[in-house]
């Protein structure tokens, strides 16, 4: 790979890379001062700095597309020879642009969505701080610096999930009064923020352990240093520590990307403003785990060249992704809250990305799964951010998070209706015209053709999840935009609040992303080919990972011609069938209204039980609370009541009484009368003489 040195580009390229993540931090510093003069101006400051950061990222695209990288370092911790640095290789540049431009659009959206909020300064401070931390993750050239950004996004997420910390009922998630396994399933913003912080910290600690375990053998945190000298991997493998260290690193990705079993925090994170949900929990932070795996996967896969097999590590990734994809998709089928449906969908789609990256490591054609996973990351970031922002506009107007309080909105919010259909079709994988179709098809092909032991079960899970995804997306659109107006809307109209379209500052950003979902989708196969070719060159030159360069695209086979040349026919048929079945069922129940879903569920004890099981989140959330909150508190209180108060205090009674008695005896001897002291002194001498005579 050609490396652009500092001298070669006169320092300009290096400065642009540093500017991408430093500019948002400067905005975070400036915003509180600006807020003292004008709270509204804080939004414009945040937007301006986000735009500057995005432009800096965009200027690096030509170098990335030419398979060049910028790697620049400065002194940091000299005692251990550690340097701080930026690494703008093709992977980082593509990811940085996804983060930068979608963040910019969400910042613009936020100026309308958060208008009038009295804590506007605090909101934009944390949004800018988050953006800087996320870009630091993407552009860092070593584990330790990346971890600083990792913790930064975690801190910002905690602050923004619990942003409405006054815990008003309208800001809760869940249904008031609802219980699962005896525990309330209704959460406040402050509780949700703490839950997100604690659960992601479990993964963070695992990641920290993996980092330092590798450092103990390699003596470096640097990604390029670890790639160039793999003696550390040989030493770790000899002691059976390499795969545990890799899995520990993946633990950090599990926490940040809300994968099973650390997925439950993401659903409660919907207590934050919708702009936060779009930025952190759809387009960027939850993708940090995927990016980490994409950063590490080639390094571990390339170890096969020196005889180190990492299949177990990649199997863990693939199965965690597959389980999460199916688990959260089933819950999204039945939930009544629009933001939670989108949250379930986010975790599920990230599961697809993890599955693709895991399968890449189990396949001879590593680049196929790698391309599929990253392509779906880009695709999902566009349509899911659009869907979240559109949902925020609906919540802004309707004043309720429940889809049962909506209905018939297509007559009143025509722009949002059109854009939500476009983005929703991307999520469903509508054939040939959406990015979601091509990226999911790429994942299907990569899984099906991987040739590993788990190919068929993983492929089956992927297809079933796609069916469910198309169903719950159609259900969401049907409940929100079709049918009659809900009683809630009728009551709002009686009170003089009429449903209307959101302002341009809100609908333009999610409109742009919805149009891109279709626009890029129309040329989706060519877009996929471009990414595939880019990663072929990148993985080959940087990690020595060979690929069949003669393959036009993922799953190249001669069975299809024309514009479908290179598409795997089995994957294509599975994609078409999944969309048709899922959309068809959703249309029957929620758009055409040919059958009543409530009556259908209640008509059969099996359907009723399954519905309840999914609605109760497979009981996993309740079991986590019982196992890690309720039971430990119960044990701690029991120890205090029966052990500390009775046993420990009982043991303390005898020494306490002995000391008290001795103190009273000594106190009695202190009379202050000289004759008494002489008498005691004399008695003491007699006792000594008596003992000597004996």
Automatic annotation (TrEMBL):
All copies of domain NADH-Ubiquinone oxidoreductase (complex I) chain 5 N-terminal, residue ranges: 77-124
InterPro entries: NADHpl_OxRdtase_5_subgr (IPR018393), ND/Mrp_TM (IPR001750), NU5C-like (IPR003945), Proton_antipo_N (IPR001516)
E.C. number(s) listed in UniProt: 1.6.5.11
Major site of localization recorded for this protein: membrane
Keyword Transferase annotated: no
Statement: the UniProt record of this protein carries the keyword Signal: no
Residue ranges of every copy of the NADH:quinone oxidoreductase/Mrp antiporter transmembrane domain listed in the record: 190-467
EC class: oxidoreductase
Gene Ontology cellular component terms for the protein in this record: membrane
Subcellular location: Membrane
Sequence intervals crossing the membrane: 15-34, 41-65, 91-111, 123-140, 146-165, 205-223, 235-254, 316-334, 341-362, 374-398, 418-438, 458-482, 507-527, 570-590, 618-635, 676-693
Pfam families linked: Proton_antipo_M, Proton_antipo_N
Biological-process GO terms, alphabetical: ATP synthesis coupled electron transport; electron transport coupled proton transport
Membrane topology, as annotated: Multi-pass membrane protein
Keywords: Membrane, Oxidoreductase, Transmembrane, Transmembrane helix
Single annotated GO MF: NADH dehydrogenase (ubiquinone) activity
Name of this chain's protein: Proton-translocating NADH-quinone oxidoreductase, chain L
Source species of the chain: Candidatus Nitrosotalea okcheonensis
